Amino acid sequence: LLWYSYFCCLVSLLSLNAQLFYLIHSLVSSEHLVTGIIGESVLLPCDLNLSINPARLRFHWQDHSDVVLYSFNERVEQEYQNKLYTNRTNAFEVEMSSGNISIKLSQVTPQDNQKTYWTTLLVAGHYYSIYTWHLMAPFSHFLSLHCTLSARFLTPKLTVKYKVRNAVCLTQGGYPKPKVTWTIQDLSQPQNGTLEPREVQTNITLDPESGLYTVSSQVNFTENYTDNHSVTCQVFNPVLRETVSNTTVIRTSITLLMLICVGGIIFVYKQCKLQFQDFYYYNENRSSTV
């Protein structure tokens, strides 16, 4: 009876270790990419879908430089955490018993971009001792996450300068480097016309302090782009696959008419002022002579 119990225990142990080996191997063979937004939080996921006693659980997260983000050994070990990640990482302790050893990285910065994070899991105790030392060793770095960061651009400010016949598009606060496109549409026609790069002058600069991009782009009008046309500036974020845009309508003839009217008013005002000054000067001289 004792031999039979030992045999059943051994079979159960081998079966459990085989399941864990399959789980770890499947995690090793897959690629995991996460996208974070600067200033916000990002989840570094790792869910084993396995019942684990947290009192026997030990795991830690590190980046590609072996800097510790988070360490847990029956409790949170803040003494091993690097100051770069102080007050920036949290785990889901309530869910650890079900195998969730994910962590949340908050206040994402540009310095976190393109980093690779990995976690090591060790489960102490009788049932896992053989697995820990023999099967875990080749797969200690079993889950690797590559983090790509992004930041949303503000809605562009679009200004039309009729005097020099061009439109200027300004936006900032985004990451990574965006793609800027312009379209001009004849409002009487359904199709859009995308401007060629040679017709667009775009300047994209990186702020060394914030690590975010500022965009300034402009396009000149041709004689064909007059009234009844709209112009749109689009800024595309390749990581978020998000486009922010702004549109305005070109009003060249109305603007020209307004300029003519304003110019005419100014001209008439100056002429009247000169005539009044001449009349006043004439009367003053006449009074002095009398």
TrEMBL record:
TM helices/strands, residue ranges: 249-269
Keyword ATP-binding in annotation: no
A Pfam family that the UniProt record links to this protein: C2-set_2
Superkingdom, natural source: Eukaryota
Positions of the Ig-like domain: 169-245
Entry keywords, A to Z: Cell membrane, Disulfide bond, Glycoprotein, Immunoglobulin domain, Membrane, Receptor, Signal, Transmembrane, Transmembrane helix
GO annotation terms (biological process): cell surface receptor signaling pathway; cellular response to lipopolysaccharide; immune response; negative regulation of T cell proliferation; positive regulation of T cell proliferation; T cell costimulation
GO CC terms: external side of plasma membrane
Keyword Lipid biosynthesis: no
Compartment list: Cell membrane
Membrane topology: Single-pass type I membrane protein
Protein name, entry field: Ig-like domain-containing protein
Upper taxonomic lineage: Eukaryota, Metazoa, Chordata, Craniata, Vertebrata
